[in-house]
Design brief:
alpha+beta; Arc Repressor Mutant, subunit A; 4-stranded antiparallel sheet; 5 helices; AsnC family transcriptional regulator
Length: 156
């Protein structure tokens, strides 16, 4: 995707929306110093350009009964386009997998997995990860505590 040129007002809008995605257009316009119509047009343009990709609610994993966070490193036996694409499709379909990255280094993929408890993680491994064709190695790193978890991008 091509990088979009953002001016100072666009960046102020994006910063405000990242802090509160439910902010009214009226209040957003006041915060950034635009008329509501001009603000709405800019937000719409940012959405259409693909800068703003959606709006969501942040949920507390513990309150939702999903308190165990595991960073899973997957290494492949072989690297072919078809086998890699199949693993990407399968892993992307698992609701327990919140993030999946293709990486370099000691693994081929890193997954961020959230489950209720260790028994659930054991089932996840046995029923899903270990059934994937072409996986050579799985390493699990259990998060002891969360230091930082944000989706907020620096916009300045």
């Amino acid at each position: 995707m091509k990088q979009v040129e953002l001016d100072k007002l666009d960046r102020r809008i994006l910063d405000a929306l990242q802090q509160d995605g439910r902010i009214s257009n009226q209040l957003l316009a006041e915060q950034v110093g635009l008329s509501p119509a001009a603000c709405w047009r800019r937000v719409r343009a940012l959405e259409e350009a693909g800068v703003i990709t959606g709006y969501t609610a942040k949920l507390c994993p513990e309150a939702m009964g999903q308190g165990l966070c595991v960073l899973v490193n997957l290494s492949l036996q072989r690297h072919t386009i078809d086998s890699t694409a199949e693993i990407e499709r399968e892993v992307s379909s698992y609701p327990e997998v919140l993030q999946c990255f293709a990486v370099t280094g000691n693994a081929d993929f890193v997954l961020r997995v959230v489950v209720p408890d260790m028994a659930s993680y054991d089932r996840f491994l046995n029923e899903k990860i270990f059934t994937l064709k072409g996986i050579a190695q799985v390493n699990s790193n259990f998060a002891l505590r969360e230091i930082k978890n944000t989706l907020t991008l620096p916009v300045s």
